[in-house]
Each structure stands twice: as structure tokens, then as C-alpha cells.
Amino acid sequence: MADYEIWLLNADNSRWRVLTAWSHLLFHRVVNGLGALEELAIPANDWCIPFLALNRRILILRDGDPEWGGRIQGEGWSLPATSPEGATYAVRGLDHAAYAQWRILKATAGTAYDEGNDHADDVAKYYVRRNLGTSAA
Q1: How confident is the model at residue 109, as a pLDDT?
Q2: pTM tops 0.85
Q3: Running DSSP on this structure, what letter comes out for residue 106?
Q4: Rounded Cα gap, residues 67 and 51, in angstroms
């Protein structure tokens, strides 16, 4: 069976704290598409709940290797009929590809695709700036 670790990350993507008491994990890793953290369930009395704020970075490792990374996009309580017994704090998120996809610009009018003509490194920088914003340069 695979060994999973879930890390909360700092703003610079360095590992801050590992979550140890999670009870349920469901995520989708997608190649050439958008993955998602469908649900991460944390027991109601866990220390980490105050730190699971929107846009907090999360990293999931499988057997020590990065498996999924993204940001929290939704969080809230899950209260069963037996509450407070069995209450959990559920977290959902999107992988980092979502933020790149939201910034991609469509080709200009009259062209089927974007084009550049210069030195290879300058053209690469042009595409990064155009599709991810000027802060990506």
C-alpha cells in the first residue's frame, strides 16, 4: 500500500507542516489537464484547521515523491447526523495548472495561433509573459 504525506506549504513553496490526522483523501491527477483535490477530511479537533485557509498551498507526496500540488479553493464542516461525533473539516482545491490555464490568452484576431520570431530564449520569454502575465518573466 502506498504511503501518503500531506504537507502545508509556505508562500515560497517550502514545506511547513505535515498533516498527520487526516481521515479521507480523494484527488485527481491529470496529465495535460486540470487535476483537483476533491476532498481532504480532517478530524474536527485537529490542530491544523485554523491554517487551512483559502489559497493555502498543499502538497501530496506518495512514497516520498510529489503526486499532487495545488491550492485550497473551498473548505467547510461536514456534520453527520451523529454530530458532534464523526464531524470532519473538509478541504477542496485545484492544482497549479488551473492558475496557468486561467491566464492563457486567445490568439489575436485574424490569426489561427500566436507566433513569435526572435532568438529562442526571447520567444520563450515572450510566450511566458503573454500567457502567464508579466510577473512570470
Answers
A1: 67
A2: no
A3: P
A4: 22
C-alpha span between 111 and 130 (Å, rounded): 16
Name residue 78's amino acid. S
Q: Contact at 8 Å (CB) between 25 and 6?
A: yes
> In the structure, what pLDDT confidence band is assigned to residue 136 with cuts at 50, 70 and 90?
very low
pLDDT digits (tens, 9 = 90+) for 23-61: 888 887 776 667 788 888 898 888 888 898 888 999 999
Question: What is the C-alpha separation between 30 and 70, in angstroms, rounded?
Answer: 13
Instruction: Give the CA distances from residue 136 to residues 39, 92, 102, in Å, rounded to whole numbers and listed in that order.
Output: 30, 26, 14
Between the two ends of the chain, the Cα-to-Cα distance in Å is: 42
Going by pLDDT thresholds of 50, 70 and 90, the confidence category of residue 130 is low
- Cα-based angle 38, 105, 34 (whole degrees, multiple of 5): 15
Q: Which amino acid is at 126?
A: Y
Query: Prior bond to 84 cis, omega within 30?
Result: yes
Q: In what order do the strands lie in the sheet with 4-9?
A: 15-19, 4-9, 57-62, 65-78, 88-95, 36-43, 24-28
